[in-house]
Design a protein that fits this description.
Pfam families: DUF2752
Mean pLDDT: 91
Number of domains: 1
Largest sheet: none
Keywords: Membrane, Transmembrane, Transmembrane helix
Order of helices and strands: HHHHHH
Low-confidence stretches: none
Structural class: mainly alpha
Transmembrane segments: 47-65, 77-99
Length: 101
């Protein structure tokens, strides 16, 4: 069943409209592919495709935990995870722009 779900996700991948119209990748390009690789258990491949995926997922998880539990430690960790995600998204995007030409 898990394999069929992953196959369904692979067929469902949407093309990037930003890349289609502008001709360059957007900061989110690679997220879908990286998520599919992560679901397959290919953690290294997932990180190579989109390094910010795991920190983004951790940030989302921490956000939902923060909604239920109010803690200074969770707030600090959430903020750190958020900024790490932003830094990885931007650095990955800049590297893609530099090396894609």
């Amino acid at each position: 069943m898990w394999y069929k779900f992953i196959q369904w996700l692979e067929k469902l991948q949407f093309p990037c409209t930003f890349k289609k119209h502008m001709g360059i990748s957007c900061p989110g390009c690679g997220f879908q592919s990286a998520l599919i690789e992560l679901l397959k258990g290919n953690i290294c491949e997932s990180i190579l495709i989109y390094p910010a995926l795991i920190p983004i997922l951790v940030t989302i998880l921490l956000f939902f935990i923060k909604l239920k539990i109010s803690s200074k430690l969770i707030s600090i960790t959430l903020r750190s995870s958020f900024f790490l995600s932003i830094i990885l998204i931007l650095s990955n995007y800049i590297i893609k722009l530099i090396f894609s030409s």
